[in-house]
Amino acid sequence: MAYIKRDAELDRRHFQAHATIIADDIWAVNENGARAYLQLAVKADSYQSLSVSIPGDDNYLHVTSPPLSGLNLVLYEMGLIGEKELTPDVLHEDQLIGTLHGRQYVRVFFPLVNILVFLLLILHTGMFIIYLFINRKFLEQEVLERTRNLKESERRFHDLVDLLPEMVLETDLRGGIVYHNKAACDRLHLTFPPLAVDHFFDFIVDEDRQQAEQHFHASLHNEGSDLQEFTAKDRENKTFPILVRSAPITRDRVVTGARIIVIDITDRHRLEEQLRRDEKMKAIGLMAGGVAHDLNNILSGIISYPELMLLDLDKNHKLRRPLKAIRKAGLDASEVVSDLLAVARESRPAGRSSTPMSSSAST
After folding, report:
1. Helix and strand tally (H, E) in the chain?
2. 256 close to 172: Cβ distance less than 8 angstroms
């Protein structure tokens, strides 16, 4: 009975290990990966059948072994090979995602069993060990394949992150930089691998540092994860504006640091400043156009009426000289109006007429 209980406990633990191994594939809905592993488990551990049920689908996966034959069939018919059911839960991060059902062959031996059966048992055990040794290669190949896939996924992740134009950082709970991508290395002049003395807050100007620390600690508690604008500086103390967004890094439900995305918005500020200058020029142009229009109406009389009066005066009349001076001053003012009209035309968007109606200054 002690042997049977111990063997049953070992089978239960081994079966639970199978449920733990396929948990990631079930969570990722990787049916092929889970099926391949269960097929190997059926061969390696003498299961009659293995099946997985998930919420909403009681027959998500089902794998069976070939029917018993030869000596195993004889022992099964004699009752020396029985069956038992095992049903451990499939958990992913302590969350129930399914149940693994299995029927396992159980070999029950009694003290008074026939010597022949005992010798057959020894022979069967030897063959079973050889069988496990052969299948071990398949399991090792599966482990190697998964290890290679994991390394490939890590390499792909690093390549994609390095291609991002934004700066990506990972820090510990104190803000010490433990990882950075290529954009952060180039913009902040960091080293690879990161130095233990590099802190994220060292790259924030003193005026914004306290606010940056508050935003960082709030993000560790899933608070204040919106984009925040700060002024950063590199190792050469060159300042530039940035947008920062951070989120906590958790391992086994414990916060171990923060993942930070930093966006350099220098070009954005430059464009905003250019837009403000363009708006000012547009306003100046509108004002210049209005002023030029009003001045043209005033100057048309200042220039035209002295010209008409000169036509009626004698050549030696004493008013001719003052009238000519008035006319010349009006012509000089018309040149200023022309300059204002030129400014108004240049400040207007293309395709729109902005020239105010004016009188001819030379009439």
Report:
1. 9, 10
2. yes
Mean pLDDT of the chain: 80
> Which residue spans within 122-176 are E strands per DSSP?
167-171
Backbone phi, psi, residue 52, to 5°: -125, 130
Distance (Å, whole) CA 31 – CA 51: 12
Which DSSP string do the residues of 59-113 spell out, in sequence order? EEEEEEPPPP-HHHHHHHHHTSEEEEEE--EEEETTEEEEEEEEEEEEE---TT-
CB atoms inside a 10 Å sphere around CB 299: 22
d(CA 235, CA 212): 18
Instruction: State the Cα–Cα distance between residues 86 and 69, nearest whole angstrom.
Output: 23
pLDDT digits over 190-240, tens only?
877 777 668 888 889 989 889 888 888 888 887 656 788 899 988 888 889
Cβ atoms of 345 and 358 within 8 Å: the answer is no
Q: Which has the closest alpha carbon to 207: 183, 180, 233?
A: 233
